[in-house]
Structure formats: structure tokens, C-alpha cells
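Aggregate trends can hide what the representation actually does to any particular protein. For completeness, the protein is quoted in full, as a sequence line and a line of C-alpha cells.
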Amino acid sequence: MTALPLPATPPVMYQRWHDLLFAHWPVPADDMERLLPDALTVDTWDGEAWVAVVPFRMSHITLRGAPPVPLTNAMLEFNVRTYVTYKGVPGVWFFSLDASNRLMVEVARGWYNLPYFNAGMHLHRHADTVYYAMHRTDRRANPALFAGRYWPTSPVFQSQPSTLESWLTERYYLYAMGRGGDVYQGRIHHDPWPLQQAEADIQINSVAASHGIVLPPAEPLLHYSHVVQVKAWPIERVS
């Protein structure tokens, strides 16, 4: 899966994502389909759906033409996501986006219809190892915890087209549901992910389970990315 042509209009927001871990597990497609809105179709690789937990750090959050605003230009974020299509267009569906910035949580929920939740979060990096902890404090969702550490184990590489790594990571649309059941589509863009193979020591991970997702006992497929510059466009109603 490769990047698509950029929209004709300029982006409205810029961000940097740092110290990101993709931890992916295969799950039965039927189980995932039951957790999705009816308007969306689960996307599969060789007949299996995939779910990911994605901890990372965000910085340099700015609106086009505006300087960085103190208290809103950085935060920690932790996503639970799967992969879907809408009318044949592949993208990402987020079960939750936990974040450390209360103001940004409410802005994102209102502007983007995305399931952002407040959480207490901590990131510490020592050499190449990232230590990450999260506990959800928002009563609008079930309790959830994550604690672990992760680190890269290979040189940087870019995923190749028609590979599982590309299918999982090179996604440039996200989907959200409005209060009236309308489907919203958001567009982002960044250079191809600078990926590295990774290892992780995860002590606690109840975030997927908080959404009724049962992770298999097998070890996850792990990838690390140090930093990527992201552009974002307004989310738009498409149904």
C-alpha cells in the first residue's frame, strides 16, 4: 500500500510523531467485524484482520499559518486500531485514542468525532529503550492500562509494496462515525515510515480488552519508528 496523491487543498495541521511502536496481532475477521459500525468493512490480509496498540509521543502540533500554542503543541498518545474499508477505500478505524492533554482530547472529540480519552501517561527514554506507561482516567470508556518497554533491533528500512508491513503501516485515511451515524473520512500524509524491527517487554496491556478485543497468546509483530512529520487535512462527512 503506497501513499496517495495529495489533496488539492493545503493541510490544516502539522505534527511530529516520535518513539512509536506498532504492536500488531492477527484476529479472526468475523470477531473484528462484529465490533465495527455497519457502514465499514473489516480489511483483511490473507483472510485475517489485524489489531494494533500504538504508543508514541507527539510534538510540534500546529495549525497552518499559526505559531505553536503553549499547552496544546505536545502530548503523549496511545491508540488501539484496526483496518477497514469504506466503499473500497482502505483506512484506519480507531477504537480509542488515549492522550495526556485534556484540552486536545476535547478538541479532537468535537472537531474530528474521534474517540479520544483522557489518560495519565509517562514516557521515558534511556539510550534506545522507550519506557511507556498509560492508565485511562476518562469515565467515558472502560478502564485500561499499559506498561512496558520497547526498543529497535535493526537498521532503518522502508516497507516494500504488497508486503504485510506496508499493508499494516502505510495508511493515509482514517474513519470516524458522527452522532447521527454518518461516516467521516480524514486524510493524512507523511513520508514512508522509517521502520525498524523491534522487541518489547510488555508487563500490562488491557487496552484492547477494554473494547472487547481478545488478543491471541502469540507474540505480536513489532515495529519501531523514531520520528515522522505528519500533515493532516480536515475530516469530512462522506455518507
Q: What stands out?
A: The longest strand covers residues 13-28. The chain has a mean pLDDT of 94. Helices lie at 29-33, 102-112, 164-169. The two ends are 24 Å apart (CA to CA).
